[in-house]
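step: validate -> pass
step: tokenize input -> pass
step: predict -> running
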Amino acid sequence: MKKSKKKTVVVALSSLAAIIIILAGVIMSGKTLKITVTDKAVDDFYGWGTSACWWSHMVDNEETRTDLAKKLYSKEGLGLNIYRYNIGGGVNPEHNRVTNAWHNTESFYSYNEKTKKFEYDFSRDKNAQDFLFESLKYGCIDTVVLFANSPHYSMTVTGEASGSKEDNGTSNLSEEHYQDYVDYFLTITEYFIKKGVPVKFISPINEPQWGWGGDKVHQEGCHYEPSEVYELLKLFSVGIKERNLPVKLSGPESGNIGDTTKGYFDSITGDSELFSEVGSLCYHSYWSDTNIFSKIKFGSWLKKEPYSSTRIDMSEWCELPCKTSVDNVKSAVIMARVIANDIDYTNVNSWSNWVAVNQIGIGDDGLNYSDGLFYAKDDFSEYHTAERYYALAHFSKFVPTGSKILKADANLTSYIYNLQGHDEETGYLETSFCAFKTPDGKIVLVLVNEGEDKEIKISVPGETMTVYTTDSTMKLKETYSGVKTDCITLTKDSINTIVVE
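step: predict -> pass
step: emit ->
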């Protein structure tokens, strides 16, 4: 559904100048960076989340479940308010190409040997359900998104949920099973709603532009052309109204912010009847970590109607390819930079991490390249906090749902760019930032420094200031509290949250 207000997107002068600088391939440095935050709201912000996909079904220990749920979804932890629950496509016992147990899913729709039919069994996926209900206890979650990477395997062309036999961009869901998929997904949605789960969005399509398939597959997936996205979601919109469900569609979970995303977005917005049932348009921020040029272009495009009056969610991100160890603070700094850039340049209304927990991933060099906020052994007999946890904490613990995104500008001559090459339109700011106003009137400015120690000047309304810092020696540590100052020092490779009252 469109928001009732007109979404005002401000393309800051800094963004326009950034395009010029990047195109020119100029590295600029010099004067002290000065950031000015006004009390002018740019847009609404709906909060922070992560996905329970590919790990919560592996947690069968009550103590582990309680500990992780608190660290993610309580105020003592990250205080996340968006929970992404995976509606798995299930595993065909006769043939299955996905060998990793973490990536296989237990479906609510299972074959009954006695009746020789597929039937619903909501006692299944018990571990994942238990984790959801444990997380709901702590009072932070106001939005549950039910999402699927694939339709149920019984409805697919291959009889598997892992894509076509060939990786050639062919959909694994034939049109004759569109309505079956709609009925299946909405029946599961009704189950969760009746259990009291605050389901606000359903997302039945995930990264439709990728091929999904071939001999070697690692996860569930299903390709759709824009026209197929339209036809399927149109049926979903009809089903939602017929069942009088208090949910909206979210999609199409585009896998990046490239040109194909525009085609998928346009396929949804071109039909007013369908679009009336769409609560958010969402994309994934993969493959653009060091390309603020593409983020600026995409954000400028979203400035136009009908996108400017629509909720835009960044619903998945992790470092791809993951080149930074879980124990290196740079992994947190990279994540914080992506969050700040997505908010500042693409004007998103919420931001969700990909998986909360991933398997320990030891590379050839002996370092761990897990992409989660936590990393765990396969049986969860051991799990640890990754540096990225603190990156998300710098935002989620200080900026609750209901906050406003504020306009923040900087003197451009102080920017320092890291460029991949003078012949490429890629690069990122060594100092990234974004600002918010919380419901209780506090102003929160997050500064990300990817470089040596540097002095920053700030101009922010308010009287007192508290600063929290994460770097190679500190983890979300209070480093200043007192009368507001207009000059602070950012330590090397650090994340700094400044709260002004």
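step: describe -> The two ends are 34 Å apart (CA to CA).
step: cleanup -> pass
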